[in-house]
Amino acid sequence: MAPRIDRALEGVQRWAARLAERRAAARAADGDREPARDAEHPAASPGPGASGDAAEEPGARAGEGGGAEPVRVPLPPTYAPAIAARPEPPAVIPWGMRVAAEAGWRLLVLAGVVWVLMKIVSTISLLIIAFSAGLLITALLQPTVARLRRLGLGRGPSTLITFVGGFVVMGLVGWFVVWQVMENLPTLTDRVQDGIEELKRWAIDGPFHVSEAQINNIAQNVSDWLGDNSQEVTSAGLEGVTVVFEFLSGALLAAFVTLFLLYDGPRIWAWTLKFVPAAARGGVAGAGPRAWVTLTGYVRGTVIVAFIDAVFIGIGIYFLDVPMAVPLAVFIFLFAFVPIVGAVVSGALAVLVALVTNGVVTALLVLAVVLAVQQLEGHVLQPFILGRMVRVHPLAVVLAVTGGSLIAGIPGAVVAVPLVAVSNTAIGYLRRYAHEHALASAAAASAGAEPPGERATRAEARREAPPTGHGDADPPRLS
Predict the structure, then answer these.
(1) With contact defined as beta carbons under 8 Å apart, do 152 and 269 qualify?
(2) How much is the pLDDT for 436?
(3) What is the DSSP letter of 32?
């Protein structure tokens, strides 16, 4: 039994020696990191009673209780393989990708806000269109009210005379157009039929050599399409009735908006300024009148230019013996409120009527008249009448008209360009105001005085603060 115990003790001693050698090699490789690990794992460090690199492990004594000398068994080494430090994920992502991600989610939020605004605008489109129409009509009629006020009339009589006179004139123009169309409709129908027959003969005898069977086949296809889509045509007619009711309600609302803006426009503007933060109220209060001057100049200049276009093109159409010359001139006047696109559409309509009624030669002459008048408008009338105050780049005009027509149809196309012109004026003034305000604040700070913006904000806050009393004072009255 004793030899076996001796052999076991020798094996344990050899194992302990190998462990000690490994631990010494590990310490030599780790260098100065071993003390930190010994501090983190005090249980693995040799105790005060240990000798050399060996530590006494409790309960690991051979022959304990048998009278034999206790054996000190060293603990396993405490070192761990070196693990490379992994950087944080944001530090690994390239800078350009991080910037793109930051911009991307902000663009998504902005797109969501724009989408919600578009939904709101489409829901209350009738209200917005009616208010915009009333604003444009007010910009057209307000100089008349101001002129009557300077002549000595009161605000009420001046507003009433201008409002009634303006809407009576517009109603008479609409009635005249409808009367002319109904009066010339039989003649136009006969001319259109004759023009279609002439075009048919020209297609057969002309350079295209179209056969009569092909033309009849096209006509039959059109007739079949109308028969197959009669339900869609009927629904379109019902939608047309709905559009008429919406137009009448919108016109009535626009009339009320015009009346109140003409009578109480300055007070409405002062009331609107209360919703603007006090720090920005001075800039907005200065930008509003300038934007209104721009809108008034745009509307009056557009009316003058449209009237000149309608008169000259109408005279040309009349002398070329094109039917419905007066209604076509009125259409040209109305379409002139849609810049660029309206002129193209109204000119194409006049050329088409001349083509189907009087032939190709008359259509070419009408086209020459339209192009000549439009060149006169673009190079002489608009720069002279509208001036630089409401000048907008043609690219901005095309984009604004396209966007307005996509959002709200023809009313959106009419409102788009004046909105761009007014925004251009307001933004330009606000930029200059911010620059001057920054210079004034810097000068006041260098002089040790209070900046003018803070002084105005504090004065505005004192004016709007409710009166304070003692005891059971009466509450402030709402104005």
Answers:
(1) no
(2) 85
(3) T
Which region, left, alpha or beta, applies to residue 162 given φ > 0 means left and ψ of -120 to 50 means alpha?
alpha
pLDDT at 365 > cutoff 70? yes
Distances (CA, A) of 131 to 169, 322, 411: 20, 38, 11
- Cα 295 from Cα 132, distance rounded (Å): 12
How many angstroms separate the Cα of 245 from the Cα of each of 126, 181, 330? 11, 22, 23
Phi and psi (nearest 5°) for 313? Answer: -70, -35
The pLDDT of residue 108 is 94
For residues 399-414, average pLDDT: 78
Query: What DSSP state is assigned to residue 338?
Result: S
Give which of 388, 330, 39 is closest to 184, Cα–Cα.
330
Q: What distance in Å separates the CA atoms of residue 2 and residue 281, rounded to the nearest whole number?
A: 105
Residue 107 pLDDT > 70: yes
The two three-digit tokens of residue 376, written as one number: 């006169």
| pLDDT tens-digit readout, 423-448 | 888 888 888 888 888 888 788 777 76
Dihedral, 293, 298, 299, 302 alpha carbons, nearest 10? 160
The length of the chain is: 479
3-state secondary structure of 450: coil
Question: What gap in Å lies between CA 55 and CA 80, rounded to an integer?
Answer: 19
Residue 225: enclosing H or E segment and its boundaries? helix 212-228
pTM over 0.85: no
Q: Band of the pLDDT at 112, cuts 50, 70, 90?
A: very high
3-class SS string, 115-126: HHHHHHHHHCHH
Q: Give me the residue label for tokens 């094109």.
A: 322
Top-confidence residue, 254 or 246: 254
**Residue matched to tokens 């559009």:** 243
| Residue that is written with structure tokens 């208010």 in the block | 131
Question: Phi-psi bin for 67: left (phi > 0), alpha (psi -120 to 50), beta?
Answer: left
Q: Work out the average pLDDT over 304-327.
A: 85
Helix boundaries (H) for 274-386:
278-319, 325-335, 341-358, 360-376, 382-385
Segment 53-65, tens digit of pLDDT: 444 444 444 444 4
| Interatomic CA distance for residues 127 and 148, integer angstroms | 30
Q: Which pair of structure tokens corresponds to residue 258?
A: 């015009």
Half-sphere exposure of 425 (CA within 13 A, CB side): 22
